[in-house]
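Entry for the shared binder. Reason: the reviewer on the internal report wants the predicted structure included alongside the sequence.
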Amino acid sequence: METDGEKIAISANVGDERTQNGVIYVKWFSPPERMSQAIKKLGLFWLIAVVSVVIPVFHFVSIPLFFGLGVFFALRSYKSEGKVLSGLVLCPHCLTEVKIKPTEIQWPLSEICQNCARVVRMEKSVV
């Protein structure tokens, strides 16, 4: 489990009154990092759009699709405050450890418990 980032306490539930406390480690992005991430994603999707010019018939759909997806994902990346590096919480239903995988921060976070297959939703704990 990567623990280099800022430690944040979370509260998890599975849609009922049962809750469990856990922790996530977060790396916050500075404005230049956010812009860099957005430009990389935009460039990647636009490169795919340019390459798809050589695909007969399919290019009528793929070029506008990848140009649009590039703009969408670049804006989404620019709005992202940071990234979850790792985390751990107990499933409120079955009390099994749920490891939180790296993802962009978008509250509420959610993971699927590998033991009971319930969706575990996580919010920042109010301390």
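Summary line for the report: The mean pLDDT is 86.
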